[in-house]
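Input record (Table S2, row 65):
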Amino acid sequence: MALQRKYGGSLPAILDQRKDLTPDLIAYAVRHGVSFMPSFRKTEISDAQVSELGAYLVRPRRGNR
Ligand code: HEM
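Output record (protoporphyrin IX containing FE complex):
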C-alpha cells in the first residue's frame, strides 16, 4: 500500500512485478530500511539470503511481468 501511494501506479506496487530494481538497491533497502520499512541485521537475514532475494526479484521472466 505504501508503494502504491508513493508511485501512484506509475510503477507496480508489488516488488515482484518491478523491472527497475537491482540487487544492490534491494540489499540497500534491506540493510538500511526505507521510510518506515525496518532495516534487517545480518543475524536476521544473512548476506547470502539478501543476495538470493535480489537474484529472485530481478530474475528474467517470460511475457510482460
Ligand atoms: C526482507 C524482505 C524485504 C525486501 C527485499 C524489501 C524490499 C524493499 C524495497 C527494494 C523497497 C523500495 C521500493 C521503492 O522505494 O521503490 C521497499 C520499500 C518498502 N518496504 Fe520493504 N522489503 C522487505 C521487507 C519489508 C517489511 C518486513 C516491511 C514492513 C514491515 C516493509 C515495508 C516497506 C515499506 C513500507 C516500503 C515503502 C517505503 C516508502 O514509502 O518509501 N518491507 N522494500
